[in-house]
Amino acid sequence: MSVQEYLDKHLLSRKIEDAVNAAVRAKAPDPVLFISNHTRKAVRCVITKIKARQILDSRGVPTVEVDLYTNKGMFRAAAPSGTSSGMYEALELRDGDNGKYLGKGVSRAVKNINEKVSEALVGMDPTLQSQIDQAMIDLDKTENKGELGANAILAVSIAACKAGAAEKEVPLYKHIADLSGKTSLVLPVPAFTVISGGKHAGNNLSIQEIMILPVGANSFEEAVQMGSETYHHLKAIIIEKYGRNGCNVGEDGGFAPNISSFTEGLDLVKQAIDRAGYSERIKIAMDVAATDFCIGTKYDLDYKSPNKSGQNFKTAEDMAELYTELCKVYPIVSIEDPFDKDDWEHTKLFTSLGICQVAGDDLLMSNPKRTEKAIDEFTCNALVLKVNQIGTVTEAIEAVKLAKDADWGVVTSHRCGETEDSFIADLAVGLSTGQIKAGAPSRGERLAKYNQLLRIEEELGDQAVYAGENWRVQ
Q1: Can you say whether the dihedral through the CA atoms of 99, 100, 106, 111 is positive or negative?
Q2: Which of 21, 45, 92, 343 would be a feasible disulfide site paired with 167, CB 3.0-4.6 Å?
Q3: Are 410 and 431 in contact (CB under 8 A)?
Q4: pLDDT tens-place string over residues 86-112
Q5: How many CA atoms lie within 13 A of 376 on its CB side?
Q6: Percent of the chain with pLDDT over 70
Q7: Please, what is the end-to-end C-alpha distance for the chain in angstroms?
Q8: What is the pLDDT of residue 235?
Q9: Residue 445 phi, psi dihedral angles, 5° rounding
Q10: pLDDT at 27
Q11: Worst-scoring range by mean pLDDT, 88-102, 325-339, 344-358?
Q12: pLDDT tens track for 392-432
């Protein structure tokens, strides 16, 4: 083929002439760079390749990472993972081969991406998020994404979302806002984990975590400062009372002193807030994760103690009374999973008291059907959004819309098995959830989210809005 025939076949002469004319009209100071960018934009962006691999999360447990390629570049995403998977959430596909990673390998999920998902999505436009996600759902054909694995589907979905933002040449949070129809962008109030317990730590504390919310900060940057200072004051207090061994941390970076009672942990946190000088500006939240210590219809607050007396069992009514009293004594504004995941009755009764935000995690599992039921029955008033419980970006957006239409709060949440991927930071801003929990103000996989929010706030400049006192409903 001659040069002229090649030019004619691909209409290159006309395309180059159009690019040159555009550079002249724009009076481009660097015409070569302008023409290069102009020509690149003229090429339709499609997914050209998807490559998955097995990596380790923050607990040293395998998870799925994806590199998604378009003609604009490569975009990487990784799926987070929880300590345990609930029966109502999308299925995290594991190998089950006890000879490798104690059965927790994800090579099957990786293979599904490389051999099935890739073939289905190559050639698709990455800006069409809902179509990409629906294609994977249709390919899976199960209600809980058990064929391909929610961990496989989610990693691809997030990578595609990043590619879509790049194609539109907008920040990821702006692309997410566009996908959801949001016009406002809000920096969320961070719920920093400062005390860890439950399944996340080796102490005797039954509840999973105690968090601090800098609702009185004037910016996200100030909120990070307040959270960090309080965290370090708490460390000093724990050393004073329990020695340096008390500063061991849980899976999400919260301190795990060997305490066993709610009040002991809350007293430490309140003292740290006061010592930091933020007594009027920082509130407290608790993730009880009550399902973990619910036995039948009672709650065993000593379930982690090696010398259980058998005397610390509480009924649901006892627990409701305990929460009510704690909210009177401490500045608690949110309680997550105060009762068992199937105890709708007592969750509803406690929510009706209007004492604090009642957030559903194990209760809802980010499951649209359970969320709709909770809304219809006025059970709890906030959604804990964990993207891997749903499985795609599109379904996460739909879950948030459902919650916000009911005037619920929304807590964008990490998992205990995290990666360096900061996607949920952009998600929280793009969907204006108003709240984000990503662990302690320490540990790299947690700080990846908080640091990304600092960058977003800086990028937004004068347009940046911090949720602050309006943290519940945006």
Answers
A1: negative
A2: 45
A3: yes
A4: 567 788 999 999 999 999 999 999 999
A5: 6
A6: 95
A7: 61
A8: 97
A9: -70, -25
A10: 80
A11: 88-102
A12: 999 999 999 999 999 999 999 999 899 999 999 999 999 99
Polymer length in residues for the chain:
474
Least Cα distance to 251 among 55, 453, 451, 445 occurs for 445
Looking from the CA of 437 toward its CB, the CA atoms found within 13 Å total: 30
Q: What is the spatial distance between Cα 406 and Cα 22, in angstroms, rounded to a whole number?
A: 49
For residues 275-285, give the mean pLDDT.
97
User: How far apart (Å, rounded) are the C-alpha atoms in residues 367 and 447?
Assistant: 27
Alpha carbons 435 and 355: distance in angstroms, whole number: 18
Bridge pairing between strands 298-300 and 409-413: unpaired
Q: Would you place residue 220 in the very low, low, confident or very high pLDDT band (cuts 50, 70, 90)?
A: very high
Give catalytic residues, as residue numbers.
252, 386
Going by C-alpha positions, the residue among 412, 391, 416, 393 that lies closest to residue 403 is: 412
Helix (H), strand (E), coil (C) string for 126-180: CCCHHHHHHHHHHHHCCCCCCCCCHHHHHHHHHHHHHHHHHHHCCCHHHHHHHHH
Rounded to two decimals, what is the model's pTM? 0.91
